[in-house]
Each structure stands twice: as C-alpha cells, then as structure tokens.
Specification:
The complex is a heterotrimer. By secondary structure, chain B is mainly α. Chain B is built from 2 helices and no strands. By secondary structure, chain C is of the alpha+beta class. The chains are: A mainly alpha, B mainly alpha, C alpha+beta.
Chain lengths: 710, 62, 812
C-alpha cells in the first residue's frame, strides 16, 4: 500500500483533436450559410428559387450550425482538454467520450437535413423536431455523466472555478432543453407544443435567453478562466471575484428571460421581473470581464506579439460590450425602439462573432501547437486572421446599428397631420438595403479570416507530431477524517452530484417562480369568448407557415404603441393566442407584422404576392414562393393533428377528427372559387389555398365581437 | 391554483437545502484558500517517458 | 552604502542561479551554473538529482539565499520526541501522518510547485499542499517510511525550513467567527434576494395584475423568508444591544435592534391583520447591507500574527544533560537546576548560569541590539539570547516562564484582554440618536392620538422607527474604518483590527523604544581613528572580516566596501574577542581592546570599538555607533510638535549625549529600563490619564506594547517574528508615522461627515413618517439609496484623502 500513492494516468488528446476539427468544419459551414442568408436579404434571387434554400429555412440552419455545431464543439473540445488536467484524472469513460462526439455530430447532420426540409418546431434555437430533441437529451446526459464521473475520480481536492461553470452549464442546459421541448407528437416529423400562446412564449424565451446564457456564456467563462491564465501564464486577477461572480451569475440569469417579451401580451409583472434581473446581471457579467482583462495587466507586451492573447482580449471586451448592451436593451424604453429591429441582430453577433468566435479561435491557436508539441506555424497569418476578424465584426455590427435606428425611427415617425410618415413598410426596408450589403461584406470578411485559421492549423499539425495520450502522475486523493463535520466536507468533495443538485435547484427556483404562475393562473390569460380554434384548413396553412419559417421575418405581436396600432391595427391581447401551438410572435420584423393580416387584402392579392412578391409590392425582399400554387397538400394527417390538439385541451367537438377533412374541403373549395372569380386558377388542394386560409384568419376573431377583452 | 403554493414551497425548500450545502462547502474549506488554486492551474507536468519517471526513490537519509 | 553599489557594478557580476543574489568574492560552480553559497548549491543539487529543475523555469531565480541557514544537522533532534510530534501533527493513523508547517520562505509560484511535488523527492511523502497567503504547507506522509525529523530536514535541505516553535506546540485554535458571519451574510443575501423577487410586483404597482392569490402567497412567502433573517442573521445585533443596555450604555446596535424588531413586528401586523404587504423586504435589505459592512470591516492579515508572545520565539525543545547523556526534552518540562546544552545559533531557553564554554550572546530579538555580548563562566545569562559560537553548558536558574524576560507575560496586563477604554464615536452618537428618534416617534403618536386618530398615531410611531432605522448610520463606521485599514495595509502599516484606528486617533503621547527602533543596526556609522590604513592593510582587514559572521565584522566589512580581499592562509576567530592571522610572518589582530592589548583611556563613548593591531602594535580602531534610522529625526520632531515624546532604552545612557544632540532636549529619556520597567513606565503614563502610543521592536518591549493604548511593533521584515502588538509596521515606512497618526484622525472626520449625510436622509424620512406617509416602496427605495450612497461616500473620500496625504501613491 505505501509508496503506491503516486498514481500514473494519461490525458486523451485525440478526442480534443476531433472536437477541435469538428469545430472548425462546422464553423465554416455555419458561417457560409450565414453569409448566404445575409445575401438573400438584399438579393432575393439568392434564395435560389426552391423551398430548401429560402431565407425562412436557411436562417434557423445558420443559427443552429453556429450555436450548436461551431460553439458546441468548441465547448466540448475546451472542456475535454481542460477538465482532466484540472482534476488530475482522465475523463470518466473513453467510450462515452466517443459516443458523445459521434452522437453530437449525428444530431448536427440531422439538423442540416431536417431544417431545410421544413421540419421545425419554429421555436428559436430549439427548432429541431422531437425525435432529435430526445437524441440531444441522451447525448447531453452522456456528456454530463462523463464529467461527473471524472469529478468523482478526481485527484485534485479543489474544484477550480472553471469546473463549476462547466457543470452549471451542463445542468441548466439539460433542464432548459427538456422544459422547452415538451411537445405532443402528431407524427415522426410533427408535434405540437405542450404550452400555448403566452405560456409558450414565456417558456420559449426563458429557454431562449438561458440558451444564450448557459450555452454561449457560462461554458465560455469557464474556458476563459482556464485558457486565459494559461495563455498569459499568470494567475487570474482575483480568484475570489471569480467565485462570487459565478454564484451571482447563475442565480440572476435564470430570471432574465422575459426581457425578450417587453410590451408583449405577457403579464406586466413578469416583464418587470425580466427587466430588473437583466439589469442586475450587469454586475456579475462585468465582474467576469474585468477579471479577465485585469489578468493581463502588466502583460500587454505579450498581447502585442501573441495572437492568442489578441483574440482573447477582443473576445472578453466583446463579452463586456454585449453584456452591457443586454441590460440596456431590456430597459423598456430602449426595447421599444430596438425590438424587432436589426439592433438585436447586431447585439447577438457582437456576442457570437466577438466573444464566442474569437475565444474559440484563440483556444484553437493555443491548443494545436500544444497537442502537436510544436509552435504555431505562422504567427503573422494568425495576426492577419485577427485583423480580418475584427474588421469583419465592425463591418457587420455598425451597419446593423444604423439600419436598426433608421428603420425603427421611420416606423415610429408621424406627420403633422398625425398620419404615419411611412405608411408603406417597404419604404423602411428599401432604405436600409445598403446596410444589409455592408453587413454581408463584414460576414464574408470574418469567414475568409476563418479560412486562414484552417490553413494555419493544418500546417501547424503537419510540422508537429501529435501526442494522442499525455502522461501525468499525481498522488491519490484519499479521504481523511479529522475535524468533526468533516463528513460533509468529504461528501461535498467526493460527490459532485451535490454541486450538480445545487445548480439544478437554482435553476428550478427560477423556472418555477417564473413559469408556474403564468401556466397555472387563469387570471393571467384573460380568455376572450370570441376566440375560436383554427379550422382544419387554417391549421394546415399555419403548419405550412411554420415549416417555411415565415416567423423568421414576420412577427405576430402588435405592441401597444400608436405607431404600431396605426400601421397594423388593434394591439395583440394575450387571450387571442390561447390556441397557438407553438406561438408565432416572432422576434424580428424584416417584413411587416401579420397579426391583423386577416381580411386586409383579397385572397387574390395573397396569391400574386406569394407567386412573386414584387408584383404586389415592388422592391420587396421577400423570396417568391411560386411552388405553393402547384404543390398539392396531403391532408391525411389532419385527423391525427385534431386528436393531438384535443389531447392538449383545444375544444374541438367530440369526434371532430372524423369530419375535419370534410370541413377542410368545403373551406378550400370556397377559397378556390373566390380566387377563380378574381381570375386565378388554383387547385383547392394546393398549399396556396391552405396558407391563404390561415392568413385571412389571422387576428380576425377579436373583430367578430365588440364585447369582452379585459 | 393551489398547485402554485405547493410548487413555490418546494422550490424554496430546495433552495434552502442548497444554502445548507453551501454552508457545508464553506466548512469543507472549498473556499478557504482563494489564491493558490489560481496559481496551481498554471503548472504543467511536462510529460515524461515511463522509465525516466521512476522517481529515484530516496536521495536522503545518508 | 552608495559607493559600494557602484563598486559591485564595476566588478564582473554573476548572480546565483538559485536565489539570484549577487555572488560576492567566492563563486561556487556546479554544472556551469553559479551559486552564491554552498546552501544554494546544495538545494540545486537535490532538485536536479530528482529532475525537479522545472522549479527554476516557473519563476526566475525562485530560491532564497541559504547563507544564513545554520548548517547544524542535529538541530531537529527534538522532533524525535514522541509527545512533541503528537503536539505538532494535525492527524495521524496507523500509516499516515498529516502535519501543517508554516514556511515563511514561501513567496512565489515555484515554491508552491516544489512543495506540492515533494512526493517526487521521497517516496514516503504522499503529498504536499500549499496555502500561499498563509505561507503554510500541509504534508501527508507515511511515518514508517520517513520520520518527521527526516521530513523537516528534507524541507530545510531544499531551502524551505519550516518554523516550529512553542506556540505551534500548544496551538489548535482555528478561527470560526468570520465564517459565521459569512453564513449569516449568505442567509440574509439569499432571503433578501427572494423577498425582492416577491415584492417586485408591489413596487411597480402590478399587484392588481397579480390577482389576490399571488398577492397573498407572495406576502406569506416574504414572512417565511424573513424568519431566518430575524432569528438567525440578526442575532449579533440583539446580543450586542442587550449587552450595552445592561452596562447602561447605548451603542450603535441598540437603534438597529429596535429598528429590526419594529420592522418585523409591524410587518407581521401589517400582513396578517391589515392584509397589506409589510416591510419585510426592507428588513431583509437592511440586514444584508449591515452584514456586508460588518464583513468589510473584518479585514485580516492572515500572514501576520499580532499576538505572538515569547512562546512563538522560544524553541520547542532543549537538550538536557543527564549525567553527560544528552536527551531532548520539551521546553515545558525544563525545571530549575537542570543542566542544559545550548549550541551555536540556539536560544537560551531560560535564565541560567554559564557553567562552561565561551558564551557570546546575541540579544537582537530581545533588545534590538545585534552586537553579541560576551559572558564569562558563572555569569547569569538571560533567556532569549542566541548563542554565537561553541556549545555551552548552563544550569537553569528560573523556569522558562519565570525568567527576567518571560516574567512579563505573567503580568496581569497580559491576563485581561485589552479593554477598549474609550467608547467609539459611533456609539456615543447613537445614544443621542436613539433617544431623539424615540422622542420624535412618541411625539408623533401623541399628536395623532390627541387629534383623535390613534391608528394614524400608531402608524406614524412605527414608521418613524422604521424609516430612521440607522442603516446608513451604522454603515458609515465599518466602511470608513475598513477602508482606512486597507489604506494603512497598502502603506505597510498593518493594524490588528479596526478599533485600533479609533484608539490611534486618540493618541496624545508617543513613546519610542531606543535600540532597534530609533536606531537601526543596518544604519550603523563606522569611523576609523589612528594611523591611515594602507591599501594593503585594508585588504588584510577585508579578508579578516570576510571570515567572520560577527556583527561588528560585518559593519567593518561594509565600511571597507569593494576592497579586494587577499588570500590569507589561516584566520582564527576567538569568539567574544576577535580575529587573528599571520600575514607575511606578522601577527595581525582585529578585535576588542584587551584582545589586541590596547589601553582604553581617552577613547570615544557611546559605541563599540574594534582595534587593529600588527605584532601587538595598535595602529588604530574603528568606532562603530549603531546609527539612527533614516528619517527618524523628522518623524520625532514632527511628533514632538504635537505631543510629548518619550524614549525608553535598556542600555546605559552613554548615548544620551548624541541623542539629545539630534532630537533636542524636550524629549524625556529613560535608560537602563528592564522589560518590566518599560511596562510600568507606560502604566504610570496611562494612570496619568494620557493616551499612549508605544513603538518598539523587541521582545523586551512586549510589556510596554501591551500596556500602551496602541502598541506598534516595528520590524524590518513583516513576516519575521515581532512581539505582541496592536499593529505591525514595516521599518521602511516609519517616516510616514506622523501621516498615519494624522490620517487616523481624518478617518474620524470622514465618519462624522457620513453621519451628517445619513442624518439628512433620516430627516427626510422622518418628515414623511410623522405624517404617516411612509409606504413600503418608499422604505425599500430610501433604505438602499441612503446606505449605498454612504458607502460610496466613505470609500471615495477615504481613498482620495489617503492619496492627498501621501499615504497612498495612487487613488486606487
């Protein structure tokens, strides 16, 4: 027994290499798609005239690719390298590591296939349909088990702060993902959200915001606390601060979600909650940034020469900027201007390109030479990449801010006569087209920088020799008992599950307190007697609307401002959405809001507009959807959909599923006939008819009655 | 409606236990030394080959 | 000094690979690396043997010079003694032992790395774990493979010799208090956070949107959350308030306690009877902020210990001779009449009579004077001195705790904890404050009562108590003092706790210890009288003094500066007398008068003399005075403008003359002061009703430091041993002393100013309160606003003024 206390073990670099390569590969693809989407916004032809590459389906592909493929793999690479070294033990189980790797890549590939095909839940950053959601849950848990296993077998007594960030991220994301993806399947590719309308919106943005928080922020803060000190070879400025800001961050983030829904039909007090906590968030966020930057105090000479540190400095600064912008945007009056505009787009890209992108680059530039036991192939090249990236970010963000302000102000401008100065939404779009072009250029610049990275990585790997297993040794961490109360000490140390529980609890409190009231308390969702469930045809139309990702450009939530009620009509009430599964409020108005679209134009207008938007509104950036009129829609699954919705409590009469298709045909024929009179020949079974049915229904219920609405 | 009372109660009880565990962590001394860990992570045990790393057992007690 | 620097540059410099010190004279080489001394070389050898040279990569020149380390190998023998081991270790089972050493030499990342790789040095060591700030390392080892003695020897071999002393032996009192505070803070913070959450809708008048169900739920939740705050987090305040009331005083915690209780009870009433929302969130916030303040005030300097008595200076064990058999016994077991052996570099553990050997005792730690004194057979040697030279045999006269020096600690002034004689500014104000508030509250009650609206009266009464709850008031003191504490700390002036600041501001009499405080061995002035020294004789003297570690030799050496030493075949050091050698068949002596055979008439007073003689012919002598510290004159003259200044000294008064010359005659000087006398001296001053500040450095000042209002221990190296005191000051910043004293007063002014600030808040509050216009939201806003603004105010002003007064060189 004695003497054997010094244990030999080795770190697995292979898995890190694989995740690293995946990071780069998916990164390039994701950014490429991004550039395409950006181009489509000023050049509709770039939609390439087929359903699969239209903006509505490309956008979610872009977001998923960069968030879950690029950043996701980067996180895993970073954790699989740093965690074993911090704990002085390999990851718990190699097989599990590889399951995690291939599982995650499979998920991404499935996403790349299903999203263009239009299989989507339309919830932002959670678009994937339920079978993939389940797969995600499984792989994610595997990842967690691997980490916790390593923690239990660790040889280092102290849990370095980075580890806490990793674990917190794991737990939160798991809970969020499950919470948000709760849905009732209709078929293998179609499901309806468990929540409706306001509740769905709340859950979605509680998730949506925390996805940003716990997928794009906390894991990277963990990485920052490991890689920044390592790269600068100096301890973090204040370890105490890092601990404090960890706890405050994980607590506050949970409540910040509702700031995405200011001025919406969400109950006021929930909005206030969101605002207040978002503002409080500033403190811990900046705590992190300051801690990161001050770590480099006195090392600026290093920063001047070392591209790794260069990238890190900008990354951390970008983090600071976007975490300052966040609270700012969650102030109601600022939000009133910024919401639905490109400001939000700029905001997220400062975070995405700056914080996540740049830090990932820095990490890769640091890891590659280390794992290949060599030096970086070309520092000059890396520095060039740095400058291209930085310019890219500027060219991206600045035009977006200009665009946002221009458009928002145009939306809100009134003439002396008290009429809207720009009643035609299109004017405000054409105005900012040049900005969209600049933005695309910025993206392109950033992307081409990334290619330099690839070249540099390859060359570096070539000139070095890869070390798949890295030997290390450490004394075993034997539990010892001395002072009383030591038991808990031990328990805490040996069973990180405790820590995991802590985080879970923190999250649950947030979730429960925020969501439960809205879900459970009727008083929060004033019901409106005249609001009826969708007819089968409208339902089909709605699902088309969802699968084409129309929500990516068209909101369905009119805020209570004169400028909006003037433009779109009566502001949206919570009660109007009780049958919306999922909710389609949207978060960006590249096109006008559609909540009061019903009955605005004749059916024929919609027909022509779909076939060629510019025919009805010249200069429109909307992609043409000619195939809608020719594609025959298969209505066989309607009964199943009805049944599913009934299970979710939608008051269709008993056994309505049987006659649903009959009603559907009647309504379809009516619309077809109506179109005929306008001189348009479409088959009642065409997708066009269903979509028109839905659009004409939008926001009309409330008009049917003068009574009610509290 | 009553469910909410229950849920919030539960969540707070959980939170309480979380606080309790935080205390234990304090007692356990995870937060006692707020300086050394930051330095400790900077050390790299440069990988050695197996036979070289037999630590020459005793150099002392002469 | 300066000219020496120049010289060192001029000659080809090579720095030690281990400790980075410049290698003087003889450079040792090992593996094309240079070392300044054998010790450093040895460490390097050990490390390279075990390929631990990474040590030298992590930090540049990480080692510390090994010159001073005593080479005696058996100096750890006492670590074989079983019950000493038992006293030292933290934990022991059949195979493992865990022990925590304090290693003052820990100073950089390399240290951490090496000490945490001890297992590579010896297979018997399981692991080492460093706590950098506390400069401690916990080592876990297998005691059948390596004994504690071997372990310590190993540590000292690699240059990290732990300090083990009597204090460690009877230690094991871990601080739990400030952890308690953190718990309370956590509870308050947690509850407060959630209360805010539940109260938010109220603030934004969203209550109706909430619906009754929620309103009630949230209020009840607030009550639930307020319980831990009221019954746990706030307990300290009740206790302290109760105590002060019991001794017929009113301290700051009384109004706080009143405030908390009113907030709580009235809120209960408000929620359960009137069905309103109550003020629980305000109470939560109040406690949260107060506790933050408390925590902030509790700045501690982990590395320093202010309460060291002789125990932490004396050895754990001594070598006792039992019929010529050496045995190592714990000091506690040492009895009168025992025969003990004291080797080179060892302490005299107790007052004893010299039996044999040439005693040559260095009392620097006791008196501050580092020039060793020679003692003859049969003379009484006081405890605390360090023997330089051959081993001695002595017979113990007094048990260690009863000695000339250690007797101090039996003085009752060490028994009782220093009582904070003057009550703090805050407390004096709070008395008036409380009564005023109560008066106003009652006034309001009566007014409304007589105008027939009793319920309104009660409302007004409670709101006054709630609104005036002296949160801001209570914040100003801790934050000001906390900041001052930090500012002083940055200025290398470390206070035991924040009370010292207030006491410091009261000081009106300053007492200096002379030796080691006013004077500093490093500032010694050397002057040569007699026949001018030829270059040759200079080099001879140089090479003579090079051979000796005697304090006087060192000073002569410094005086000679870069003079090239010449090779002398053999130099003999007769300890207590001097050095002799044969050069060109001439006998050369350097040392005391009788050693060189020189007459002693007509020689200067007030210093040490070193004579230089060739062939019994005295050519001249060095006159060496322990010089005054840099800038001490200005310090003293500054202070004596304001307060009377006293000097105390243990030595004969032969230096009185030149002290008067320097400091003028307005200073009261007393010489031949025994440690006890010093204590009594201060006591008398105190009885005369003055507030004394004592500044000393040695163990012999410990009594005085203890007795005085504020005792400052001056030390050249902060981590070194320093006697018990209220504050420890780096000798380098002594010239800032007047500034510090001045700033202590300033901080009082700042407190007063921030009181003014918070009073204005209270007046505003009361204005509304008496009219019964106070709403929970109003409280919830006013309370944090006032507190935070006070915090900001004190923090800014403190740092800014400190900067203005030159205590800090930059504002942040």
């Amino acid at each position: 027994m004695p003497g054997t206390t010094l244990e030999q073990f080795s770190y697995d670099n292979k898995i890190v290499k694989y995740f690293g390569v995946a990071t780069i590969a998916w990164g390039l693809i994701g950014m490429l798609v991004g550039v395409l989407a950006a181009t489509q916004l000023f050049l509709p032809e770039a939609n390439l005239g087929n359903p699969y590459t239209t903006f509505g389906r490309i956008r979610p592909l872009h977001t998923n690719a960069v968030i879950f493929a690029f950043v996701g793999n980067a996180i895993f690479a970073g954790i699989y390298y740093s965690m074993p070294r911090l704990l002085k033990t390999p990851m718990w189980n190699k097989a599990l590591s590889w399951f995690h790797f291939w599982g995650w890549q499979l998920i991404i590939i499935l996403a790349v296939i299903t999203l263009p095909l239009g299989f989507t839940s339309s919830k932002e950053y959670a678009e994937l349909e339920w079978p993939i959601d389940i797969l995600i849950a499984i792989v994610w848990v595997a990842f967690g088990v691997n980490m916790i296993g390593a923690l239990i077998k660790r040889r280092e007594k102290h849990m370095y702060v980075a580890i806490w960030f990793y674990l917190a991220s794991f737990v939160t994301v798991a809970v969020l993902h499950i919470f948000n993806s709760l849905a009732l399947p209709v078929s293998f590719f179609k499901s309806y959200s468990a929540y409706a309308g306001v509740q769905d919106a709340l859950v979605q943005w509680w998730y949506g915001h925390n996805a940003v928080a716990f997928f794009l922020t906390t894991p990277f803060l963990g990485l920052m606390y490991y890689y920044l000190p390592k790269a600068a070879n100096r301890p973090v400025y204040s370890y105490k601060l890092s601990i404090v800001h960890f706890w405050s961050l994980i607590f506050l983030y949970i409540w910040a979600g509702p700031h995405h829904l200011l001025y919406t039909a969400l109950p006021e007090w929930a909005q206030v909650l969101g605002t207040v906590f978002s503002i409080m968030l500033l403190a811990p966020s900046w705590g992190g940034m300051v801690n990161g930057l001050l770590t480099l105090r006195g090392a600026w000479d290093k920063v001047r020469v070392d591209p790794v540190l260069k990238f890190m400095v900008v990354a951390v600064t970008a983090y600071g900027m976007s975490t300052f912008e966040g609270p700012l945007l969650s102030l109601k009056n600022v939000n009133a201007i910024a919401h639905y505009t490109d400001w939000i787009v700029a905001h997220v890209h400062i975070g995405g390109l700056g914080w996540n992108g740049f830090f990932t680059f820095a990490m890769l530039y640091w890891l590659w030479p280390k794992m290949w036991k060599t030096t970086l192939y070309s520092t000059k090249l890396a520095t060039t990449h740095f400058w291209m990236g930085t310019m890219g970010i500027l060219f991206y963000a600045l035009p977006m801010y200009v665009a946002a302000l221009t458009q928002s102000l145009m939306w809100k401008e009134f003439t002396e006569a008290g009429r809207l100065a720009y009643p035609n939404f299109l004017e405000t779009v054409i105005q900012i087209k040049p900005m969209y072009m600049l933005r695309a250029f910025g993206g392109l610049l950033y992307l081409s920088g990334a290619f330099l990275l690839v070249y540099n990585m390859v060359k570096t790997a070539k000139q070095g020799s890869f070390m798949a297993e890295e030997q290390d040794e450490a004394p075993a961490l034997k539990p010892h008992v001395d002072e009383p109360g030591e038991f808990w000490h031990k328990a805490w140390e040996r069973k990180p599950i405790f820590f995991t529980i802590l985080a879970t609890i923190a999250i649950l409190i947030g979730g429960v307190i925020e969501i439960v009231p809205t879900i459970l308390v009727k008083s929060n969702v004033p019901t409106i007697s005249s609001v009826m469930p969708y007819t089968p045809l409208e339902l089909q139309g709605r699902d088309l609307y969802i699968s084409h990702g129309c929500v990516g450009c068209h909101s369905q939530m009119i805020r209570p401002f004169r400028s909006e009620t003037e433009r779109y009509g009566e502001y949206s009430k919570a009660g109007e959405f009780v049958y919306d599964r999922p909710f389609l409020w949207g978060s960006k108005r590249t096109g006008p809001d559609l909540h009061r679209e019903g009955g605005k134009y004749p059916d024929s207008w919609h027909y022509y507009h779909m076939v060629d938007p510019t025919s009805m509104s010249p200069g429109s950036l909307m992609p043409p959807y000619p195939w809608l009129s020719t594609n025959i829609m298969d209505h066989d699954d309607v009964p199943a959909k009805i049944r599913t919705l009934q299970k979710l409590g939608v008051p269709y009469p008993e056994g309505y599923d049987a006659q649903a298709n009959a009603d559907l045909t009647i309504q379809a024929n009516k619309i077809a006939a109506n179109l005929k009179t306008a001189g348009v020949e479409v088959m009642p079974e065409s997708e066009m008819v269903a979509l028109i049915a839905y659009l004409q229904r939008l926001g009309t219920d409330i008009k049917k009655t003068t009574a009610s609405n509290p | 409606m009553e469910v909410i009372f229950l849920l919030i109660a539960i969540s707070l009880i959980l939170a309480g236990s979380f606080l309790f565990l935080f205390f234990r962590a304090m007692k356990g001394g995870q937060f006692d030394d707020n300086h050394t860990p930051a330095i400790r992570i900077l050390f790299e045990n440069e990988p050695k080959t197996k036979e070289k790393k037999e630590p020459s057992p005793t150099t002392k007690s002469k | 000094m300066s000219n020496q620097v120049k010289i060192s540059i001029s000659r080809e410099t090579s720095t030690c690979y281990h400790c980075g010190e410049e290698c003087k004279d003889d450079i040792l080489h090992f593996g094309e690396k240079d070392f300044c001394c054998n010790g450093c070389k040895l460490v390097y050898e050990v490390l390279s043997e075990n390929d631990l040279c990474n040590y030298y990569e992590i930090a540049d020149k990480p080692g510390l010079s090994q010159k001073s380390v005593s080479g005696r190998d058996n100096r750890f023998d006492y670590l074989d003694d079983v019950d000493i081991i038992r006293k030292l270790v933290d934990f022991q089972n059949e195979e493992e032992t865990h022990i925590t050493f304090s290693v003052p030499l820990i100073h950089c990342a390399s240290c951490i790395w090496l000490l945490e790789n001890l297992h590579k040095l010896h297979s018997g060591i399981i692991s080492g774990r460093v706590e950098f700030i506390k400069k401690k390392v916990q080592v876990k080892y297998l005691h059948d493979k390596i004994s504690l003695k071997e372990l310590v020897r190993l540590l000292s071999r690699i240059g990290y010799e732990p300090t083990i002393n009597l204090a460690d032996a009877d230690k094991k009192t871990v601080e739990v208090t400030d952890k308690k505070l953190i718990y309370k803070l956590a509870v308050a913070g947690f509850c407060f956070g959630n209360m805010m959450l539940f109260s938010l809708p109220e603030y934004f008048a969203e209550a109706e949107l909430l619906g009754e169900g929620f309103k009630k739920t949230f209020n009840y939740l607030n009550v639930m959350l307020s319980l831990p705050i009221f019954f746990y987090a706030a307990t300290d305040y009740y206790r302290s308030a109760w105590l002060s009331i019991r001794n017929k005083a009113v301290n700051m915690d009384v109004p706080i306690a009143i405030g908390i209780v009113t907030l709580f009870t009235y809120s209960l009433f408000d929620i359960f009877i009137l069905g309103n929302e109550g003020y629980m969130d305000t109470m939560g916030g109040l406690l949260f902020f107060l506790l933050i303040g408390k925590y902030y005030q509790q700045k501690t300097y982990d590395t320093l210990s202010f309460d060291r008595d002789y125990k932490s200076y004396f050895p754990v064990a001594v070598t006792k001779l039992v019929r010529d058999e050496e045995e190592v016994i714990p000091l506690i077991k040492l009895g009168v009449g025992d025969i003990i052996k004291v080797r080179n570099e060892e302490l005299i553990p107790a007052d004893s009579i010299l039996l044999e050997g040439e005693a040559f005792i260095d009392y620097s730690f006791v008196t501050g004077e580092e020039v060793p004194v020679a003692k003859r057979k049969g003379e009484l040697i006081y405890a605390g001195g360090r023997q330089k030279g051959k081993a001695l045999t002595l017979t113990v006269q007094k048990s260690p705790s009863q000695g000339y020096l250690t007797d101090l600690w039996n003085n009752d002034s060490f028994e009782k904890e220093k009582v904070n004689s003057l009550e703090s500014l805050a407390n004096r104000i709070s008395g008036k404050f409380t009564f005023t508030v109560l008066a106003i509250a009652l006034g309001a009650l009566l007014f409304w009562g007589f105008s027939g609206q009793l319920s309104m009266g009660i409302l007004a009464f409670t709101s006054v108590l709630i609104i005036t709850c002296p949160c801001a008031l209570a914040m100003s003191t801790p934050f000001t003092l906390g900041n001052t504490l930090r500012v002083f700390g940055q200025g290398k002036f470390f206070l035991k706790n924040s009370h010292v600041i207030e006491k410091l501001s009261q000081v009106d009499t300053v007492v200096f210890d002379k030796t080691g405080t006013l004077t500093s061995t490093s500032e010694a002035s050397v002057s040569y009288f007699g026949e001018p020294l030829s270059a040759e004789s200079k080099s001879i003297i140089k090479s003579l003094v090079n051979q000796s570690t005697h304090a006087l030799s060192n000073r002569v050496n410094t005086w000679l500066g870069g003079v090239k030493a010449i090779k002398l075949d053999e130099v003999e050091e007769i300890s207590g007398k001097g050095l002799r050698t044969i050069y060109k068949s001439q006998e050369i002596r350097l040392g005391s008068a009788d050693f060189v055979g020189a007459g002693t008439k007509g020689l200067p007073e007030g210093g040490n003399l070193v004579f230089f003689a060739v062939e019994g012919m005295m050519l001249g002598y060095f006159f060496i005075q322990s010089g005054l510290r840099k800038g001490i004159e200005t310090v003293v003259s500054d202070i004596k403008e304001k307060f009377p200044v006293h000097f105390l000294s243990g030595d004969q008064d032969h230096e009185r003359v030149n002290l008067v010359k320097v400091f003028g005659n307005r200073i009261l000087m007393s010489f031949n002061q025994s440690p006890g006398d010093k204590l009594v001296y201060i006591k008398n001053l105190n009885q005369a009703g003055v507030h004394t500040l004592m500044i000393g450095d040695g163990l012999n000042d410990a009594g005085a430091l203890r007795e005085s209002q504020v005792g400052i221990a001056l030390t050249d190296k902060i981590t070194n041993f320093s006697p018990a005191s209220d504050a420890i000051m780096d000798a380098g910043v002594i010239q800032k002393l007047p500034a510090f004293l001045d700033f202590a007063k300033t901080s009082r002014k700042i407190i007063k100013a921030s009181f003014g600030l918070s009073f204005t808040y209270n007046i505003v509050g009361v204005y509304f309160a008496v009219q019964g216009l106070v709403s929970p939201v109003f409280c919830a806003i006013l309370m944090p606003v006032s507190s935070i603004s006070v915090v900001v105010f004190t923090t800014l002003t403190t740092n800014y003024l400190a900067y203005r007064k030159g205590i800090k060189d930059k504002i942040w």
